[in-house]
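Please review the protein record below. Tell me whether the encoded fold seems credible here:
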Amino acid sequence: MKQYSPITAVVLALLLCAANALCQITITWDDIPSTIGTRHVLRTSPGYIPVTLSSPGENQTWDLTGIDTPGEIAVSIVSHDDTPDPSAYPLANWIVQWEDDSGNAACAYAILTPLTFNIIGFMVAGPDSMFSLPLLNWPPLFTFPIHYGDDWNTTLYGEITIGGLPVIFWDSSEVVVDGWGTVITEMGSESCLRLKSHHHITLTLIGIPVFDFSVWAYIWMVPDYPEYAVMVSELNAEEDFTTAMFIRVGSESTADDVASFLPTVFTLENPYPNPFNPQTTIPYSVSEFSDVELIVFNALGQRVRTLVQTWKAPGSYSIVWNGTDNFGNTMGAGTYFCRLQTGELVATQKMILLK
């Protein structure tokens, strides 16, 4: 057996570690589809079908070819105007919409930043009905960058009203990035991370559980396709399940409209309505992580109301001013100014309060 000096052994070990690190896959926020108009097709199994989970670990190859996927769902990254309710979830800067041949659509609304991917709500719409599920918390589904070996817990909860009664939805999940390597489908081979998750889902009506079940899921993430392939177990299945619903990407992404979903400029838009009585909405955008101040002044330059004074991620926002000062006193009719400032950037808009 060939002998190595201690120094040579250390150098070889470092080189092997470096090579291994370079081979591993990392997913960042830039790998999430970044333009409105991006769309592709998902192929789905005809129900729960036999599946093979394959092994976790490093430098794995997961061959998912040959699985029956006759169903088809169109997936798009859309603007607010293209959703069933354009006024819903105005703070969302990333909206993915699924549509089937029956005219049904489902939307997931999120806030995507370089650090986190926060889901804020859902909407389901059919030819004759529509309901929305806003989340009461905005937990990060992902914290970027995502590496092999990462693990985290996430809880989503929201409330909807059915028949005049409140229904609370809970999804508590445990997630681990249990492998990296290559995933093979009919689309070809892609470098990927594999995420393994266990979800405990409950629906409670007036505090009484009406649904209570768990599912296991595997997700293969590749650049530009956060859910390139997905296996979801049957309800209350064991961890080593052998039947699952299978979904995979079935077409290349296309994007006719290259509108970015994140603002690239710092802006303070004209409040609306303006003139106003009794309140007005002030829209604004910030293009980088920063401390933001939005303050209302009177015509004499005196500070009347501090509307925003906090750290903000890149995104588009809006806030309502109801014509009162910091102490809740109603202001008189006249001209006021709202000033947006972040760092050295300042913008001002005039507002007229009528009585």
User: Anything to note?
Assistant: Residues 26-260 form a domain with the YmcC-like fold fold (CATH 2.40.360). The chain has two domains: 26-260, 267-353. The first helix runs from residue 6 to 23. The first strand starts at residue 35 and ends at 44.
